[in-house]
Fold this sequence. Notes:
- With 414 residues, the chain is α/β, with parallel strands linked by helices.
- The chain has two domains: 3-197, 3-Layer(aba) Sandwich (Rossmann fold), CATH 3.40.50; 204-413, Rossmann fold (3-Layer(aba) Sandwich).
- The chain has 15 helices and 22 strands.
- It has helices spanning 3-7, 27-38, 57-64, 75-80, 83-88, 100-108, 114-121, 134-138, 140-151, 177-188, 229-240, 268-278, 322-327, 347-357, 398-412, and strands spanning 15-20, 42-47, 68-69, 92-98, 126-130, 155-156, 160-163, 169-173, 204-209, 214-215, 221-222, 244-249, 261-264, 283-286, 293-295, 316-318, 336-343, 362-367, 379-380, 382-386, 389-392, 396-397.
- The strands form six sheets. It has an eight-stranded mixed sheet, sandwiched between helices. Strands 3-2-1-4-5-6 form a six-stranded parallel sheet, with helices on both faces.
- Strand 10 and strand 11 (221-222) form a beta hairpin.
- It is elongated and about 90 Å long.
- Cytidine-5'-monophosphate is lined by residues 208, 268, 286, 288, 290, 319, 321-323, 339-341, 354.
Amino acid sequence: MAVEEMTGERTTGKTVLLIISGGIAAYKALELIRLLRRAGFGVSCVLTDNGGRFVTPLSLQALSESKVYADLFSLTDESEMGHIELSRAADLLVVAPATANILAKMAAGVADDLASTVLLATDKPVLVAPAMNVRMWLHPATRANMATLAGRGVHVVQPNEGPMACNEFGPGRLAEPPEILVAIELLLAGQTIGVASAPLAGRHALVTSGPTHEPIDPVRYIANRSSGRQGHAIAAALAQLGARVTLVSGPVSVADPAGVSVLRVESAREMLDACKSALPADIAVFAAAVADWRVTTAASGKIKKQPGAEPPTLALVANPDILASIAAAGPERPRLVVGFAAETDDLMANAQAKLARKNADWIVANDVSPGSGIMGGAENAVHLVSASGIETWPRLPKDDVARRLARRIAETFG
Length: 414
Ligand code: C5P
């Protein structure tokens, strides 16, 4: 990587003291330093003993272009810069990754190494980005420590949910470096973050996800290839920003997102009823791939194959349009209604037509042509279509599309 790209032209004049504690996620600190430098921040690093098992002082020093501090009793460090000076020189202290151990030390006021001593001695704002095994994160001891730290005004970038290095699944993954960067930028701009002051705190979001199954008879149904990944990721991302989320999901095999209430349905008509029952909502995101048609009258018994007889003809009838009916003007219309348009042809024209026809505020348009790998895949390439124009986003993992969309939603409620 070129040095110009690392350092960038910009400088904010602000310095972050990045404390890296031990955990498999410590490698993400390297990417965070790169992003901070590119955004114009000065970065100095404190590495704990355990952190040093995962990343080397040399790589931190190369990326931060600054000395890395590790030893509380290093005389050179003390003569150049004591631990009090270290935090005085910074505008913000960031602990990323923050292990259960360092959070416990912070809560208890333990100062037995350079990192914990700096954290106890500082009068600067502190941001922690926890990363640990899901059980450690959910343990009452960690819950209590987090509550203590929140009570003292420590800011938190909540961990994400997902597969973990220890083969478990759940909340505890270090937030992605771009999310930590956003939190740092907000804090240094004098804004607040964290659950209590999360941008969508107090808002109710309704999200639909997955396919619908339309019965033909008790054993057969009409369905589609939707996995529910994108809708579920959006529900999780909105919850991360503090919204109360109701997820109305068709049959999927992805896990329920943490902290979200899930209403499970099968057919489009059940999905509509569940959505109506969840109102009022401030935000509604319709990511479900709802079947356009259902069999007019599903057979009550299994349709039999008759030897020599013609195959049965299925008479179809249109399903209710859930998005259009919730977005129709009225006192219960959510303030922001977001639809999806998965198209194989004329993507933009179809998305714009859908925006008007369904009375949506935004349409997230994506090309699901065969070969795009998007339907059922892990990535998405979308365009955000609204009355004010079209924004094209890069191809991103579905989780990142969800986080970006949730942040855009939060901005409109800011
Ligand atoms: O008309 P089309 O199915 O392409 O529109 C897609 C958008 O409308 C998606 O947001 C989808 O969730 C929503 N939709 C719906 N109910 C339907 C059909 C689509 O909510 N019956």
